[in-house]
Amino acid sequence: MGDVLAGFHAVWEFESDSVLIRYERGIRTPKLFQALGERRIPLSAVEGVTLAPGRRGTVVLRLTPRPGADPLMEAADGQLKEGSDPYRLVLPAERETLAEYYADELKGLLTESGPAERHLVAAPEAPLQFKAYDGKASFDGTSVQFRWSWTGASSAKWKAGDQIFPVAGLSGVEWRSPEIFEGHLRLVPRDPGSARSAQPDQDPASVVFGLGYGPVHESLPFAAAVLAAVRARGPVPAVPAPARRDPADIAERIRHLGELHQAGLVTDEEFSSKKAELLAEL
Question: Where is the DUF4429 domain (predicted)?
């Protein structure tokens, strides 16, 4: 196609086999977009295209990536807010006809659907690092390092000492958005028999987030890069689910969640949702 379509915060350039997305830099541009810079999305990684009305006189053109095709979206696991979705292009409503033309053209070029056998979209490049609440995480492309902070790390983590995890010893990454209660990044060991604490704040293979610590635009690209490196090594054995938590620990966490709710730091919806998750672990 070779055409360009400019929207709010991003420009899409259409090629015969891919869409090159260039994200703008600016105060109003989502920080995740600024961190990503630009991304080339092969059409083989896309299984659908939609065009729908947006807010305040806009329309939204969106690509639907195939499951498993993009390490960023795999790591995000549906936790990104709508405004931070890198596959959305928001346009003024008066450009709806033009957007509809490009949507139809793209649909005619799509030939793949269903889960992808491997990542088809490039992951953010290492080295990467970010500051979590209880330590600093860094990734050089071959190993992940956690260096604990004396102001936030638990005694269990201090006792274990700073940690280095070669990619060869990992089977995956668990990312929980810092915008929700108990946000964290946890590394999943390749060895199914490895001991694993149920609580990220006690697990030396995890760093936990807090207000201003582990922001999405830093921790999510980090998680995606690690996940891509792990997947590049090939299939990994299944990892059993962690053991259920102690009821006393669940009660304590619900009490703490209630305090955050009363202080206005957690919404009614977030409180109900997280409380239900905690109770389900009993």
Answer: 12-106, 137-226
pLDDT score of 282 more than 80:
no
Query: What residues contact residue 73 under an 8 Å CB cut-off, 6+ apart?
Result: 65, 80, 87
CATH assignment at residue 25: 2.30.29
- Global pTM reads 0.82
In this structure, the answer to whether residues 69 and 95 fall within a common structural domain is yes
Structural domain boundaries enclosing 198:
128-231
Tokens representing 197 are: 């604490």
User: How many CA within 13 A on the CB side of residue 11?
Assistant: 9
Among 74, 34, 205, CA closest to 132: 205
Q: Which residues, other chains included, contact 258 with Cβ-Cβ below 8 Å and sequence gap of 6+?
A: 271
- Measured CA to CA, the distance from residue 226 to residue 206 in angstroms comes to 13
**pLDDT per residue as tens digits for the range 47-60:** 999 999 999 899 99
Same domain, 20 and 90: yes
The number of folded domains in the chain is: 3
Cβ atoms within 10 Å, residue 255: 9
Q: CA triplet 197, 145, 38: central angle to 5 degrees?
A: 110
pLDDT digit string, tens, across residues 206-220:
999 998 999 999 999
Q: Distances in Å between the alpha carbon of 54 and those of 8, 29, 114, 115? A: 12, 17, 27, 28
Contacts of 54 (CB under 8 A, 6+ apart): 60, 90, 91, 93
**Residue 219 has which token pair?**
């921790």
Token duo for residue 73? 């979206």
Strand 18-23 relative to strand 10-14, pairing: antiparallel
The residue to which tokens 């638990």 are assigned: 154
Taking alpha carbons only, the member of 81, 163, 76, 190 closest to residue 123 is 76
